[in-house]
Design goal:
Strand content of chain A: 15-25%
Helix content of chain B: 10-25%
Number of helices of chain A: 2
CATH architecture of one domain in chain B: Beta Barrel
Structural class of chain A: mainly beta
CATH architecture of one domain in chain A: Sandwich
Number of strands of chain B: 5
Strand order of the largest sheet of chain B: 3-2-1-4-5
Oligomer: heterodimer
Order of helices and strands of chain B: HHEEEEE
Largest sheet of chain A: 5 strands, antiparallel
Chain lengths: 224, 106
């Protein structure tokens, strides 16, 4: 790991978390997942993904997406949530929201059933909070997404995307199936500052008199 | 990263296309997971053996030797596996619904 000298950062030090491996990735839809980088985390294989069209009794589909602890661990609570997300937003360390993308298959949300049974109602939850009912197209993939506050993202922990399938027909039958291809969590995060000095460095190396403009360039992310 | 406006536009487009696509009767567009188009909306008598039960779904070994999944409106129990069944099958959503279900002991 790089030694971080970002004393000007409100978090003390930001470091790159280990990005998850793309080995074993499987893309079922025509939608390619984004490239994983700092602030973009992708899960393209594993439980809950590429299941084939799955009915209610085969679910719920639960996908656990790890997000590394890319901010100072002191800013992360025991549950993985940011302790004070607004502070990090104000200091431009992280964006206020994250986009969670997930292509879904065969969502018959507007099906005309003639009143015999309900159209497809698939409830999406993120980290235990209901977000929306899926909308889509019969027998086709839909590139869906939800937007969540950054305070609902767990860092250094798994984040759970859950789909409860065909909730409009519980007890009446299992009429609708669906699948998820991959899940990506995207948000903006400040890249770490690394100031590398030479062998002639002293305590005042980065002061304005010795290195004009260096620390002032970092001010946008310093505490106000 | 997608902007919010792009996201909203994509979602609205998907919803519109979905609404248009779903104007057709569901039986005309329903399809099983394997990609085999559902049969026209006609009731078909079904006879076979229950080989699997999950939730309200049954997998049947049919008299012609093929196997297929169906849904029912019944509360099913695992002890139905191995029992004979006769029913009427009708395309419904992404599957076929069994009505007039009668089980026969093992």
């Amino acid at each position: 790991m790089l030694k971080c000298i970002a004393k000007g950062l409100p978090l003390g030090c930001v470091f790159l978390g280990a990005l998850s491996s793309a080995v074993g990735a499987q893309t079922s839809s025509q939608f390619e997942p984004p490239v994983e980088t700092l602030g973009t985390y992708v899960l393209n294989s594993g439980p809950g993904l590429d299941t084939g069209c799955t009915f209610r009794s085969g679910g719920p589909l639960i996908v656990q997406i790890p997000v590394p602890a890319i901010v100072n661990p002191m800013e992360i609570g025991a549950d993985g949530f940011l302790i004070n997300p607004q502070k990090l937003i104000d200091n431009k360390v992280v964006s206020s929201e994250a986009i969670i993308g997930f292509p879904v298959f065969d969502i018959d949300s507007g099906a005309n059933t003639g009143g015999q049974f309900a159209p497809e109602i698939d409830n999406v939850s993120f980290n235990g909070t209901f977000k929306k009912v899926l909308m889509g197209i019969n027998n086709q993939w839909t590139d869906d997404a939800i937007i969540v506050p950054i305070g609902e993202i767990k860092f250094g922990a798994d984040n759970e995307l859950r789909v409860d399938i065909d909730q409009g027909n519980i007890g009446a039958g299992e009429f609708w199936c669906m699948a998820i291809d991959w899940v990506a969590i995207e948000f903006k995060v400040a890249a770490p500052f690394v100031l590398a000095h030479g062998i002639d460095a002293q305590a005042n190396t980065w002061d304005e008199s010795s290195a004009p403009g260096v620390l002032s360039a970092l001010r946008p992310v310093r505490p106000g | 990263m997608m902007s919010k406006s792009t996201l909203r536009l994509a979602a609205a487009t998907a919803a519109l296309i979905g609404a248009i696509g779903n104007m057709f009767p569901v039986s005309a567009i329903s399809q099983e997971p394997g990609g085999v188009p559902a049969e026209p909306e006609t009731a078909v008598p079904v006879e076979g053996i229950v080989t699997e039960v999950i939730g309200q779904r049954l997998k049947l070994q049919l008299m012609d030797g093929s196997a297929a999944w169906f849904t029912t409106t019944l509360a099913l129990t695992p002890d139905l596996v191995g029992q004979g069944i006769s029913a009427t099958s009708l395309p419904a959503g992404d599957t076929k619904l069994l009505t007039d279900v009668q089980f026969s002991p093992k």
